[in-house]
Amino acid sequence: MRHRISQTLAVLAALIMGASLAAQEDDMFSFIPLGGRSLLEGVQAEGLPKDFGEAIRSKSADAEYWRQALAQASETSPAIAELDTWQTDTLAYYLAARAPLPADEDLPRDGRDMSLELCQSCHIITVVITQERTREAWLGTMNSPSHIEIETTPEERQLLADYLVLNAGIPIDEVPPALRAGGASY
Ligand code: HEC
User: Fold this and answer.
1) Distance between CA atoms of residues 15 and 66, nearest Å
2) More exposed terminus of the chain, fewer Cβ within 10 Å: N or C?
3) Whole-model pTM?
4) Element at 4 (helix H, strand E)
């Protein structure tokens, strides 16, 4: 019995440690700006203006269209009005790549999600998010021999490039020290 209790406690302790490690990890990456998925989840939680809510479920359009749709929606949605220019652009490019969005499923991954999921297995994320580059340069990297096999659709590569044009180029002194070592060696 005692044995069983201590086993249970060990399992519990492992669970708690796992959770707090996961939390620490989240914190470590919190300096990387939000992508379109989380920005949209944030404004959605406050309720979207009707026209805008319908448009993201039914329309396929370019970033310029979504920028204007967001400007219009900001007149009635305080949450959208609070987004800064970079966030609005990030969300506009996300919608350009992902809309029309599914109604009852989780939102598809954004550029930040992809950077965290796909860009840390060969080098640290710092190599990616400290670079200031053009869209063409990002697409060039993605199509280079060392990156061509990374699993993404062509649309996702463009979404990732658009996200990184807007949100990468983070100065090294804003990167947590644990992520700096070797980070700028390329
Ligand atoms: C399969 C291994 C691998 C993965 C996964 C990977 N990289 Fe790389 N990356 C490399 C290698 C190797 C280099 C250095 C040599 C080179 O540039 O090809 C590099 C270098 C880079 C550089 C700097 C050099 C340059 O000019 O392109 C950038 C920027 C970069 N990677 C971005 C990314 C992004 C964005 C992702 C995620 C989508 C990613 N990497 C995921 C292997 C990888």
Assistant:
1) 42
2) N
3) 0.86
4) helix 2-28
